[in-house]
Amino acid sequence: MKNPIKLLIVDDSRLMRRVINKIFDASNNIQVVGEAANGKEALDMIPELNPDVVTLDINMPVMDGLTALKHIMIRFPRPVVMLSTLTQEGAAVTFDALKYGAVDFIHKPSNTQPVSLEEQCSTIVKKISLAAGVEVGTIRYLRTKTDKKTTEPGQIKCNYICAIGVSEGGYGTLLKIIPQLQSDLPAAILVVLYEASRHVDAFARYLDDNSPFKVKRAVDGESVEAGFCYLVSGKQYVTFHSFYGEYSLAVNAAPFTTHKGGINMLMFSLAEIMKEHAMGVILSGSGNDGAEGLQEILRSGGTAIIQEPKTCLYKEMAISAIHKCKAASVIPDGDIAAEINKRFSV
Hints:
By secondary structure, the protein is of the alpha/beta class. It folds into two domains: 5-138, Response regulator (Rossmann fold); 160-344, Methylesterase CheB, C-terminal domain (Rossmann fold, 3-Layer(aba) Sandwich), CATH 3.40.50.180. The chain has eleven helices and 14 strands. Helix 9 links the parallel strand 12 (278-282) and strand 13 (303-307). Helix 2 runs parallel beside helix 3 (65-75), helix 8 (262-274) packs parallel to helix 9 and helix 9 runs parallel beside helix 10 (316-324). It is elongated. It is an enzyme of class 3 (hydrolase).
């Protein structure tokens, strides 16, 4: 029988620790092996308990959650899930936690949430289970690059286009890639991210503040320039177009918001126009969107990269793409940016 996941709960509220502990009472797959009231206590307990996953609150006395997270990533790398009232989707502190190495985030269970307590507890159990499946060697404290962006639109010719498709688990994965790209690459990056539009807006601003590349939301009819990363919500369809050597985007609302198809659509249009100058990248996510589009990019002479499933929070998209695209390079998330830099460097 498979050993249960060993969980360490870190929260300054004794009541909340009891509530979180109780969530796992009925689980045969997760065993709470310890509780800590602050980050310092957690750091003292980790070597002894050797938990598979750690949940961290943000606001705690003695040592707060973000400080503890940095220490864990450097000293005892392992999956950490932020469990706090502050870690809401689209919040800067959530992106900070993912930047520092957390694999996921959850809001604390509360009666004020739009979903039932039962559903919230089920989500927590699921996310802890998924976190335990992320390969520990890939988790590290990310030092993002914030050096000045010196290139202006049109200054560098756009010779390559890279389309990235990502769904669940995408924030943390993209934070390992976009901030590590060289700002002088003769390439543009187009990202389809399956998150709500307002959260994609917030993430674009955060990425822009932490990246040499210029990051922005894609706009219908906009010219595509080298040195820019354009983010599109999965609730939109975006296609790539060329007119007399100039590239542009067509962005429209997706006709079927419950059906994932935006990644394939972008990659098919990119393969047709850019041929061998196209690159497709499939990252963490559920479902199989992007597998056929990536296959088309390869068929047209382009390059394909797939995130190593062991490093994905959600592995389905990557596994589906691997089955269809045997010629693709399968790379851990922490090495994808270096591969893009190498392929696109002048």
